[in-house]
Amino acid sequence: MKCIFLKVVQAFMLMLILFEFIEATEEGTLYVMEFNVMSEYTPDKRRYISINGYNETYGPEIRVKSGDTLNLKLNNWICSEEEAAKDDAIWKDYCSTALHFHGVVPLANEFDGIPNLTQPTIGYGESYWYNFTIDKSTCGTFWYHAHSSVQYGDGLRGILVIECKDYDDHVKKTVDSVTDVDELVSGVVTMKRKSNVKGLAQHEVQEEIITLSDWYTDWNFEILKDRVLSLTGGTDPKLDGSLINGKYSDNETIKLRSDTNYLLLRVINSGMSGTQVFHLDGFQLIILETDGILIRPFIVQTLTLAVGQRYTVLVKLKAESNVIRMVNGCNKMMGYITKQWWFYKDNAHLRLSQNPSDVRIKLLPGYTKTELYRDLEPLQEESKKLGIKADPDATFEFNYAYYKDEQTKLKYETGMYKVNNRTYSEYLKGPVSLPEVNKTYDMIINALDHMRHPWHMHGHHFQVVSLGTGGEGQLYKDVQEGKAWDLYQNDLRHWAQTGKTPMIRDSINIAGNSYAVLRIKTELPGKWLLHCHVDWHMMKGLGIVFEVPAASKNGTEPVTTEPLPYSTKEPNPSAVVHSVVAHQNKSKVIAVYIIIMAAIDGAFYWLLM
Ligand SMILES: [Cu+2]
């Protein structure tokens, strides 16, 4: 009798193990989609770019899993035929396009979406296929956006969520670790050693996407052409408003389900320029993700996002949480544009009379403009994935400033940003060559101007080894003294003494008259951008291109990369729509089955004898 019972248990355990294995060996799903990109007008005649007729300045949300394949066809109808035919570089830029998948790393250079660098530009009436498989290690919150002219602020953008088991488990473990905690305190969350992940009810956690973006009343193209790129044009046009989830309106609501105990928010700054501040009145924000990197849960009260940055935050609701006020501040030249939205349960009474202008963003609890690069520590597995070692193989220095002298104006017909005395378009023609692939490099970025800029790295995540808070000046590897140098040395000591890992991400604010030290490991050959994500600034030259060489066949000697082969702009034959097939590697399954059977039988034999 005992024997039969044990056999039943054995068979059941075996089934469980096998089920998991088969699931894990499944090939990803193939998603085929088409983006028809065209210009539309808002009711008050503001021209914007719409994807597939969407009525807002965001296209459809793409939600896939790690390992899935995307076949995305983009059809460009941004301009009229007449506009596209204009013999004018600014018009040509706006009428052609290419799509960048922001933060999706690793992704081959040919899918990075940089017109005339990683792909041919998609002209008026032309189509282009983006066909790639998302790496198994890529997971989290991302976005896609145009990388031509100032199109994305006009609407050529959207959210890309890549789901995976590690992310879900991390959410569940964090929920389990804070579920019995009465009062959450800012700082690192103490995680339970053994987490009862399986026992958690999925419905308890309600996921919402919160996109934050600045907004300009006038058509971006006009602002660019008539103001920013004019002879007397400044660097930052006046910002007119802020969008939450694409909406200009204030006091909008997001419904909470009646059984929601936790909110899981994916917060994204997908704007053109303004740093965004995010706060929930009376609630702590447990940060779980920085730009596609899972981190040790860290609690803050107010979140600050540079353009391009994404965070996942978990919010533990209280029994009486029927109404939660969301406060958003969009940073403009002087001060903030302030908005409030509401999360609410059906039976809640909304106090819409509360005025967001009463809120002083700078007085929000925990408000800071400083990046938390010492606190937002990646999970160990994430650090391992990147494989960044303690010392760099080489260090590069990039110094940027804004030039509006007569000579610059004569040459570029407007003031320009330059990095090491060259503009972005000059780097497009002649990238900085990094010596080798599979090496660790430090990039020192020095701000010689007084403004804050959100820098974004293509094709790589970076570790933030050191970062100034603003005003301490530049870091020069040959000078080795001064405030910035002392801060840098202090950070190096900190990492050595604590054994902690610096924050890892792909976008970061660098303060004015300051510096950053970003560490990367070159893994993918190609030409990659490192640029300010304020589109106006990029149009005025603020970015560089660096080239990672491909290893030669013997794996050591670097060779110069050849131009990428583009067969055609027409639909790729591999992109034919077909139903999803879940391939199961039968021989592997059988082999594992036999091994498990043998192990279990052995264990039972040992137990019973
Ligand atoms: Cu900038």
From TrEMBL:
UniProt keyword annotations, A-Z: Copper, Ion transport, Iron, Iron transport, Membrane, Metal-binding, Oxidoreductase, Signal, Transmembrane, Transmembrane helix, Transport
Single biological process term from Gene Ontology: reductive iron assimilation
Annotated protein name in UniProt: Multicopper oxidase
Superkingdom as given in the UniProt entry: Eukaryota
Annotated TM spans: 590-608
PANTHER family cross-referenced by the UniProt entry: IRON TRANSPORT MULTICOPPER OXIDASE FET5-RELATED, MULTI-COPPER OXIDASE
Domain Plastocyanin-like: 96-164, 209-321, 411-549
InterPro entries attached to this UniProt entry: Cu-oxidase-like_N, Cu-oxidase_2nd, Cu-oxidase_C, Cu-oxidase_fam, Cu_oxidase_CS, Cu_oxidase_Cu_BS, Cupredoxin, CuRO_2_Fet3-like
Pfam families documented for this protein: Cu-oxidase, Cu-oxidase_2, Cu-oxidase_3
Cofactor(s) needed for function: Cu cation
Sections of the chain in a coiled coil: none
Region forming the signal peptide: 1-24
SUPFAM superfamilies, per the entry: Cupredoxins
GO molecular function: copper ion binding; ferroxidase activity
Similarity comment: family membership: Belongs to the multicopper oxidase family.
GO annotations of cellular component type: fungal-type vacuole membrane
